[in-house]
Design brief:
heterodimer; A: alpha/beta; Rossmann fold; 6-stranded mixed β-sheet; 4-stranded antiparallel β-sheet; 10 helices; 29% helix; elongated; B: mainly alpha; 8 helices; 84% helix
Chain lengths: 287, 209
């Protein structure tokens, strides 16, 4: 079952186009939404959350239209920043946010607040970026959401907190009913966490696959420029050349390259490698 | 009641911002009255500043983004915001009434009880009119845009011009005749309803960036 379904969604904002988006997020898994800055990740997530209403297409969350505000009872949403007045305190926010959620759990709220070491009465303007992110997480998690959507939660944070966050998300995923949709351009975060990857580039979905499929199907090929000429650039999904040689992303059985007497280094690509190389060649993906 | 918990959100978001200007408004109103200076234009200016600064702060901290991530529909949020404004004006009216009563105790010859009621009522209607113009505008445009500033300045300008040399002109005009007062009440309430409908439509289509 899919928790989020995005069908034929298009939207134009200033000079930026989202073009005919189609993807879905399966229930019970962590899906990483990757793409470089300005690729359309945040716009897509804002359309899912009904902050932006697309001119064309349909978005369903838990089988209902995303414009139905009731579905947000089941969603925990974390922005890339804490969008709240800086003279407010957690205590003040609690007073008007907690009553909105039917499944709000004060024990859970207190457990996370204490784990995140967040003060109740201190003004938000005195909080560090890490504390603000923890505050966002605190309010997103305290109603025990079935779907957690996070927009770049680790951007600008120190490595220790990033690691702690990953541990927390892994702990949350022990509940097989829970789904996490995690938007990031720091792909290292996803290597140990994600089950599925959706890659967006220039407002278009370029890839949606499971991590297992990615590991099986994609190969990082390194060789000389002569070897690249012999194989042909078109065999690769993306190629970067240097004076020393080339690095290419190959989809399929890499032994077919070796059988042509081209001895090359074949490695497993990281998500970062894939993002980097896929950016280099547009419109060549077969989804 | 379910609506009460949603209303807590609106109060939680806006009252803290409004409170200092609310108190300033009351203080200014009665200091000017005590000094025998008409307080209406200045008081309306404070209210205009108040609506504007709430919108500006909301924009600065992108609070609408936050609101839209919560389980509350856009139209219900607008409705609650208007209910909140009605309550704010009622509270302001009651505070004015209380202040007038105090002034009446110290100088009983200055006002009759009937005059106090009429003054407060007309003043409240003016703020309703001001809110009716400003709220949809501030939902539609970002407060720092030239469009928002032009309309805000124009609204203020109209109120000042209409007041003329006698700054109680507007209030006196509507208090002169029962018909004028009924007319003003009808126009203000109708404007407020139309304003709500427009704001709701703006919010339904709005891209909150």
């Amino acid at each position: 079952m899919d928790v989020i379904e995005v069908r034929n969604v298009s939207e134009k904002l200033d000079q930026f186009w989202i073009k005919d988006l189609n993807f879905s997020i399966p229930k019970g898994y962590v899906t990483g939404f990757i793409g470089q800055n300005g690729s359309g990740k945040t716009t897509t997530i804002q359309m899912i959350m009904d902050v932006i209403r697309p001119k064309q297409g349909e978005i369903k969350v838990f089988g209902s239209s995303n414009t139905n505000s009731e579905i947000k009872q089941r969603i925990g949403f974390v922005y890339d920043e804490l969008y709240m007045y800086d003279n407010f305190t957690i205590s003040h926010m609690y007073k008007f946010i907690a009553p909105l959620y039917e499944s709000w759990d004060d024990t859970l709220f207190e457990r996370y607040r204490s784990a995140f070491e967040l003060p109740m009465k201190q003004k938000l303007k005195t909080f560090s970026k890490g504390m603000k992110m923890k505050t966002s997480l605190l309010f997103a998690l305290a109603h025990d959401p079935e779907l957690l959507i996070m927009d770049e939660p680790t951007a600008g944070l120190d490595p220790v907190f990033r690691r702690e966050l990953m541990d927390l998300l892994q702990e949350l995923m022990l509940d097989s009913e829970r789904t996490i949709f995690f938007l990031t351009h720091i792909t290292n975060d996803l290597d140990r966490l994600a089950d599925y990857i959706v890659f967006i580039d220039n407002g278009q979905i370029k890839l949606q696959k499971s991590m297992t499929e990615i590991e099986e199907e994609f190969h990082l090929i390194k060789g000389t420029r002569e070897q690249l000429t012999a194989i042909g650039r078109d065999a690769f999904l993306g190629v970067r050349e240097t004076k020393q040689g080339f690095t290419g992303l190959f989809q399929g059985d890499s032994t077919t390259l070796a059988s042509n007497n081209h001895e090359m280094i074949v490695e497993k690509p990281s998500l970062e490698d894939m993002m980097y190389l896929m950016k280099g060649k547009k419109g060549s993906w077969q989804l | 009641m379910a609506a009460v918990k949603y209303f807590q959100l609106v109060i939680g978001l806006y009252w803290k911002t409004l409170m200092p200007l609310f108190l300033l408004n009351i203080l200014l109103f009665f200091v000017l009255h005590y000094l025998n200076t008409s307080p209406y234009v200045l008081s309306l200016l404070v209210n205009l500043l108040m609506f504007y600064s709430v919108a500006e702060k909301q924009e600065k901290f992108k609070a609408q983004r936050f609101v839209l991530s919560l389980p509350i529909s856009r139209s219900f949020y607008v409705l609650l915001y208007y209910v909140f404004i009605v309550l704010y004006i009622t509270l302001l009216g009651l505070a004015m009434w209380g202040g007038y009563e105090l002034l009446h105790i110290f100088s009983p010859d200055r006002f009759t009880i009937q005059e106090i009621g009429s003054h407060v009522f007309v003043y409240a209607l003016f703020i309703i009119m001001l809110a009716s113009i400003l709220i949809p505008l501030l939902f539609r445009f970002k407060p720092e845009t030239i469009e928002a500033r032009i309309v805000v300045s124009l609204t203020l300008f109209i109120f000042i011009i209409l007041s003329g040399s006698n700054r109680n002109f507007l209030v006196d005009y509507f208090l002169q005749d029962q018909g004028n007062l009924v007319g003003l009440s009808t126009v203000c309430i109708a404007s407020f309803v139309v304003s709500f409908i427009i704001s709701k439509q703006i919010m339904e289509k709005k891209v909150v960036l």
